[in-house]
């Protein structure tokens, strides 16, 4: 198979989940994974665009100022929002997120690298 975009140093495959069906998305994901196993010098990330603001953070008492590199916690435990972390309304968040994943928030205005996750689904 030809990998012209990948060989041109494509960084990620962005999949819009609002379009097509799961079977079509799976084909694209499988192709990217196949390329990643064959490539020795380039790895392509997979970015899924959901159809809207489905994963929401818990309410914050006031805005949080974050600095680059600052650690921040995401948890599925409801009502836990502090200056160092927020809750999310998606119970499978911990199953869908792995260490080294990149989380993009607020229309890609903020990005977070997942360092680790704990048994109680804190990232």
TrEMBL record:
Q: Which GO terms describe its molecular function?
A: ATP binding; kinase activity; metal ion binding; pyruvate kinase activity
Q: What is its EC number?
A: 2.7.1.40
> How far does the signal peptide extend, from start to end residue?
none
Q: What class of enzyme is it?
A: transferase
Give the matching Pfam families: PK (PF00224)
Write out the entry's keywords from A to Z.
ATP-binding, Glycolysis, Kinase, Magnesium, Metal-binding, Nucleotide-binding, Pyruvate, Transferase
- Magnesium in keyword set: yes
Cofactor(s) required, per the database record:
K(+)
Q: In which pathway does it act?
A: Carbohydrate degradation; glycolysis; pyruvate from D-glyceraldehyde 3-phosphate: step 5/5
Residue ranges occupied by any Pyruvate kinase barrel domain in the UniProt entry: 4-120
Q: Which domain of life is it from?
A: Eukaryota
- SUPFAM superfamilies noted in UniProt: Phosphoenolpyruvate/pyruvate domain, PK beta-barrel domain-like
Give the UniProt family note. Answer: Belongs to the pyruvate kinase family.
Protein's name in the database: pyruvate kinase
């Amino acid at each position: 198979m030809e990998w012209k975009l990948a060989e041109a140093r494509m960084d990620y495959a962005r999949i819009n989940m609002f379009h097509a069906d799961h079977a079509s998305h799976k084909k694209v994901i499988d192709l990217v994974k196949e390329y990643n196993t064959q490539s020795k010098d380039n790895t392509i990330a997979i970015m899924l665009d959901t159809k809207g603001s489905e994963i929401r953070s818990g309410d914050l008492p006031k805005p949080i100022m974050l600095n680059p590199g600052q650690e921040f916690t995401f948890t599925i435990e409801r009502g836990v929002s502090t200056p160092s972390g927020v809750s999310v309304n998606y119970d499978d968040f911990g199953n869908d997120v792995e260490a080294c994943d990149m989380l993009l928030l607020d229309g890609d205005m903020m990005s977070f690298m997942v360092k680790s996750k704990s048994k109680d689904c804190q990232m």
